[in-house]
Design a protein that fits this description.
Chain lengths: ~400, ~400
């Protein structure tokens, strides 16, 4: 019917309501019948939430068997009590599952700086572990239990052949567009039954997250609680991959990128304040890092984002933002295309402004999906990024939030 | 990745936030590129919501091309203004889509008796029709925009071969367990690209809904706004099915039943007040109607539902409820099984109480999924039903709701 995280071998889930959020599920539990290897990336913010500190410690050996996430309270800026709360979450799950607490990955999302309701949450964990199930509704429960201001659950599922072995991969993510940037934590948990050694998994997760989750813009902020974790439990029984040259690695990596890009784009697409989904591309660049830096510079420009909201083909702002990116950028060799996902118009060719039908362009920019493509004519590297426009609603929401 | 309603040929969707619900999507739009045949069943409550009245009128010819649903206001007990509001919704969608208003199926869910915000909703329709898209996120938006107190979106997708033609079928549903029974509307919209004549479709939808959506219990109430509608747009290009003997009909009917049962069970599984998902079966019955009546009598018994919450194998209550069902029932020929989904224990054989291990039974009844099976030893008809238990939380929620 609908395949999700519960269709990965050995994975059971649940999502429960403990009472932190009114009327919505707020506790997600994911369990692998066998220990899994973990690759993860966490926030680069200097203010680090307590569960992230714990996860960095417990997952240092690259092993995990369960994920426990609460929503509604970020357990950030909560000091030693908050850290103890995160430890207590791991301990409660470990007790019920009869595993070591170091095998439990804890994450939180929600309000920063609120006292952490350790007792309610650990009670919720103890009460709900026995409900862990592999039916698809249990996967939906988990996907919904990690949400805060999100307006829909983000899920992905892939099955593919890896050198003769059938591999499943599924993920859930959280991150709502632009309504409440202060709650804008990004969480993503991906589980797969592929067998891969931990060093290679960690390296791969870092590299692929860089091209996907790190190439989306909500409002430029990195939350104290951001985490992307991939658990691989090996139950597909393929020969464990050790190096990038191993059979099947390319396929696995491409599928992981597909999954991460899918979840990342769903995060961007959520958020009522946003009216458009914008794809940014820089190609024929001297190297990938340059391409990425240019994409990020353009998609973080409030001038560009506001122009897209207003359907204004003001390409000068794009070139201007690129020129400020801090990497070599000679606009005289650049081609720039603007349009929707199906039709793009060349507005700048080798730095020379092109004549185009303004009415047609206005029509293209009315679309919900916009594409901005920058051809650097200076190499063969490329990067993509995704973002939302900047709307009057966004400003309205965020100008009155504390009053 | 994740297939949903947008993977049916010719179907486009959107889900928007108009402001009736704070922070959540509250307007769903579904559009078929070509006119579709419609089969539907609507509430049997004598108080009928305005959009249901309109849908009965507009869909009388069995044709529709769009579905427009708002959540947050039920448009029920709203009188002539409410009816005009429903008409205005159809008109707004028809204007933007350049179709006749009679081709628009309107539905609503939310609070009963509130003035209907016609202007906000029609503005929402006019603003969002141009966003209709066939990407999967748009399907998720629609699935989420019909929710009220639901804690997760209910979606289903099936693809199958019908006599050499590839057919797609997808559905979304709404209905939350037991938190707010007064908001407990059940909505289900299923779209398929199969070709089937309207009379046969309508007959099939009625019969299959009877075995699925009409065999779930939330709290026994039928909402003023309930509707189950199936749109079949024929884009799979199979030879249109005309009679039950036509090639492929059996396959189609089985798939429709699978879809409806899936969505119905998801509705039951939602609701924080509930702690268990219970499957009821009556089999070896003289006829289907008797089997169904018995299942309904048992699953509507508050004593049975409370016993399941308390893990009490009090089978006397089940027999008692069956005896009150109003159909012939001789307990002396009945076998009764109780347990979880994997293991059942025979507690009554031909009316004679059986000895069983009480500790083992208690353990079985701790499961989140319980099965109650009644063998009537009196024929070969059967019926299934699904319900939740009755919990202290349910009573608590509903005893304080208006205060």
């Amino acid at each position: 019917m609908i395949k999700n995280i519960t269709n990965v071998r050995g994975i059971k889930c649940w999502g429960a309501h403990t009472g932190i959020k009114s009327m919505r599920r707020d506790l997600a539990l994911i369990y692998s019948e066998v220990p899994a290897n973990v690759g993860m990336v966490t926030t680069q913010n200097q203010v680090v939430a307590e569960p992230i500190k714990l996860a960095r410690k417990y997952m240092a050996d690259g092993k995990a068997q369960a994920i426990v996430v609460n929503a509604g309270n970020a357990n950030a800026c909560t000091g030693p009590d908050g850290y103890k709360g995160a430890e207590a979450m791991a301990q409660a799950a470990a007790d019920e599952l009869k595993i070591e607490p170091e095998m439990v990955l804890v994450a939180s999302t929600g309000l920063i700086g609120e006292p952490f309701p350790t007792e309610e949450i650990t009670k919720g964990i103890r009460d709900n572990i026995r409900k862990l199930a592999s039916k698809s509704s249990a996967g939906s429960f988990a996907a919904n239990a990690i949400l805060t201001t999100d307006t829909f659950a983000k899920e992905g599922f892939l099955e593919f052949d890896l050198d003769g072995f059938e591999v499943n991969m599924a993920g859930i993510a959280k991150g709502s567009g632009m309504i409440h940037p202060r709650l804008g934590t990004m969480l993503a948990f991906i589980v797969t039954d592929v067998a891969i050694e931990v060093d290679l998994l960690q390296k791969t997760v870092r590299e692929v997250a860089e091209k996907t989750f790190n190439m989306i813009t909500v409002d430029g902020d990195t939350s104290t609680n951001d985490i992307v974790a991939v658990l691989a439990n090996g139950m597909a029984e393929n020969e464990p991959m050790k190096t990038k040259r191993d059979k099947g690695y390319k396929v696995f990596r491409a599928k992981l990128e597909e999954m991460m890009e899918h979840l990342a784009k769903l995060i961007v697409s959520d958020g009522e304040g946003a009216s458009k989904f914008i794809t940014y591309e820089a190609f024929n660049a001297p190297d990938e890092e340059t391409a990425r830096t240019l994409v990020r510079a353009v998609f973080d420009s409030t001038l560009v984002k506001a122009a897209m909201f207003g359907r204004d083909p003001n390409w000068g702002r794009i070139i201007c933002a690129a020129g400020n990116a801090g990497v070599p950028f000679d606009y005289r060799s650049v081609d720039l295309y603007l349009g929707d996902d199906n039709s793009q118009v060349l507005v700048l060719e080798k730095g020379i402004p092109q004549k185009y039908d303004r009415k047609y362009m206005k029509k293209l920019l009315r679309a919900a999906d916009i594409t901005i493509r920058l051809d650097l004519n200076n190499g063969d590297a490329k990067a993509k990024g995704w973002g939302a426009d900047l709307t009057t609603d966004y400003v309205l929401f965020n100008s009155v939030y504390t009053t």
